[in-house]
Specification:
Oligomer: single chain
Number of helices: 10
CATH superfamily of the largest domain: von Willebrand factor, type A domain
Number of domains: 2
CATH class of the largest domain: Alpha Beta
Structural class: alpha/beta
CATH topology of the largest domain: Rossmann fold
Helix content: 40-55%
Order of helices and strands: EHHHEEHEEHHEHEHEHEH
Distance between the termini: 55 Å
């Protein structure tokens, strides 16, 4: 939400000039000198009339209208020329150790918030894999669902890693995006045996998906050979992260490597409010005119 500003604020100096002229540049008229005229003039100066205040208020309102009060709002038009990103997260039982899954969710949440012009989807896997959120621009809905995902939601005993990669690639089946990437995070090795590794990699290559793989945890928890093979054959990159700091650095590096050059179209929406002070000034000027007419008729 924008705030009220003025396009020509320097015009308010006219109000200061008006006040100075009232004091130092009084109007000169032909006068008839009467006994006691000096005393009457002094009394008149001490008791400013309501007409003088109305005159000043009308002038100040006219200057305000000329200064052009306006509220500016920046409007961003998002479009579909950014990246399409599939997030693939391991939610198996081992991810509950040392609060790993909650840490991953916080880091992924920040990553999603920074990808403002990209379509993002979410795939979860453990005993089996499923697409939790298809590719979407609706980051708010994706983040709400991600917040509710917990370890065990897809089982706790197995790790269907290859199945997750295979299912995730299907999200891009009808995609026409030039930049398609997947980020696969796991702390285990595939032991589900539902989809062969070569089939998962071949499908990713078929749809032109670059896969970044992240192994979290201690050495031996995951298979670095497999994760490196997936990344190398799809044109991505393999990472290892055994600490929160390293995991944050991994997502930042991926964000940097795949930084979208597409920016949303921006324009400034303006709402003008000059008509309100102008209308009030005209109303006061009308009252002054009616007062003068009435006085002349009374004479």
């Amino acid at each position: 939400m924008g705030h009220l500003t003025f396009e020509y604020p320097w015009l308010f100096i006219l109000i200061l000039i008006y006040l100075l002229c009232q004091k130092w540049c009084p109007a000169r008229f032909e006068t008839i000198l009467l006994p006691g005229a000096d005393t009457l003039a002094k009394l008149a100066k001490k008791r400013p009339t309501s007409k003088g205040w109305i005159r000043f208020t009308a002038f100040a309102l006219l200057v305000t209208a000329l200064a052009s009060p306006v509220i500016k709002n920046e409007v961003v038009l998002e479009h579909d020329k950014g990246y399409e990103i599939s997030l693939i997260l391991d939610a198996s039982g081992s991810m509950a150790q040392n609060n790993k899954f909650d840490i991953v969710k916080k880091i992924v949440t920040q990553f999603v918030k920074e990808r403002k012009h990209d379509k993002i989807g979410l795939t979860i896997f453990a005993d089996f894999a499923y697409v939790a959120v298809p590719l979407t621009y609706d980051k708010a809905s994706l983040l709400r669902l991600l917040d509710k995902v917990e370890v065990g939601i897809a089982g706790t005993h197995r790790t269907a890693l290859y199945e997750a990669l295979f299912m995730s690639t299907k999200l891009f089946k009808n995609s026409h995006a030039r930049r398609k990437i997947a980020i696969l995070l796991t702390d285990g090795m595939d032991n589900a045996g539902t989809v062969p590794l070569e089939v998962a990699i071949k499908t990713a290559k078929k749809y032109g998906i670059k896969v970044y793989t992240i192994g979290v945890g201690e050495p031996g928890d995951f298979n670095p050979y497999v994760l490196r093979k997936i990344a190398d054959e799809t044109g991505g990159k393999y990472f290892e992260a055994d600490s929160v700091a390293k995991l944050k650095a991994v997502y930042k590096e991926i964000d940097r490597l795949e930084k979208s050059e597409i920016k949303g179209n921006r324009y400034i929406k303006k709402r003008y409010f000059y008509m309100w002070p102008l209308s009030a000034a005209l109303l006061l000027m009308g009252l002054l005119a009616l007062g003068n007419i009435g006085r002349k008729r009374g004479v």
